[in-house]
Design goal:
With about 180 residues, the chain is mainly beta. About 5% of the residues lie in helices and about 45% in strands. It is built from one helix and eleven strands; from the N terminus they run βββββββββββα. A hairpin with a 5-residue loop joins strand 10 and strand 11. It is globular, with a radius of gyration of 15 Å.
Length: about 180
Amino acid sequence: MSGLNKGVGKVEVTLKWDPSPIGAQPHDLDIVAGVYRAEDPHGSPAYLVHFGSRSPDGTITLSRDSRTGQGFGYDEAMVLELDRLAPEYARVVVGVAIQQGDGRLTFGEVAHTGVRVREGYTELVAHGFEDVADATAATVVEFTREGAEGWGYRSIRRGFDADPQAFATVMGARPA
């Protein structure tokens, strides 16, 4: 979906990928959410939620974290309770970053990557990372507060050549 859609409240972002070949270092992909203030929706994030963290108010949590991609289907999951976010926050950007262990690893080098965004049983966004195959990190979806109408969303696939730490600082910036 490329348009802006309105009225989402509680969503789940899930991520899948195949494990690395036997004998190779495990591939570790991570969901990252950046939360932005209304007065600066494209500036530095007010806070980040990623592996080992949650939002200060408990509205965004990483409920499953995989370091290898082993499992059936979607191995990593983040829940965002957008309808509970304080009014001072107007934008949330969710992306995926690949941990860079031994050398540079891109989405094109990780088999069967996929991301899905659902509200309840309704699938809002689902895609792979083929269009950002040369990237080491990518944005997935953007949620924006739309006043009384609630939160809208749109799929945003934008690739970055950045490690997870650098990605977290640029993922919400306006495209050049």
